[in-house]
Amino acid sequence: MDPNIGSTTIRYKRPSYPTDPNIDSATRKPKVTIHYLRPGYQGPGPDEIERGPEYLSREIFKISPTLMVKYGAWIKFSEAKNMLFIEQNTTIPVPKVHAVYSLMAPARKHYNDGWTGKREFREITYIFMDFVPGATIEESWDQWDEATIANVQNELKDYIRQLRGIPGGEYIGSLDRGPVADCMLEHADFRGPFDSEEEFNIGLRKTYWESYKKEVLICDRLDGMLAAHKHQIVFTHNDLHFSNIMVHDGHISSIIDWADSGWYPDYWEYVSAMRVGNNRQDWNTILDNGIGRPHCEYLIIERVRQILVPW
Hints:
The protein contains 8 helices and 11 strands. By secondary structure, the chain is α+β, with helices and mostly antiparallel strands. The protein is globular, with a radius of gyration of 25 Å. This is Aminoglycoside phosphotransferase domain-containing protein.
């Protein structure tokens, strides 16, 4: 046997990959960003809510007798900021926010989307807040007595008055001079903030024209009807549908879903509350009395909405 021929050991060297900025190298779990933490909060975090929370509604889960969490890819920190803003500036009942976290979780892609060879992530935001007792108006209306109807109407009217009394309506957009959150401008080239109602109207007109160029007449009417009245810019919930108002023991216990809130013309609250159709004239009467019905603005914006938000 040739003494120059021997066995050779080949050591495999694991290839090095770039560090994933979304993954904690120590725990190999997605990195968590803390957006807000109420002093004294010692409740669960994002990694603890997968242990079988009780489903309440879309994206909302009850995780203890006093705590619930709203989370998902569509949830944003801005919703919690709006709730904290309302807590600090009014007596309107909103769920008390305890903590807001976000993390970048691996995106689940459908196989038809194709594979790019790159791992993709999406941001998941978690809002931990007090569990709210009661049922929505939509669920409980048929069990109401006359006293409850009167309470809800009077309380809603007071809460709208408080919203409109918050100082700061110097632009149209979301808090901290952010863009307009309303879905009507979701595909607009510019979503604000708008420094005046006139600029906002131009933005609506431009977005409508680019989406539906056949109706020149509607654009002209939009200009004329909105310019006919000068509107105050006020803080607006922007989705006062009866599925977003909780009632308990004959009173409003909470107003929820502040995701699209911000500074809008004063007619916008009524228009947005009516955008999801309902067949309850009695509830519509409460809205009329609580918010006030802006007739011409409602008609023209509803027409625009049917084109920009067809669902």
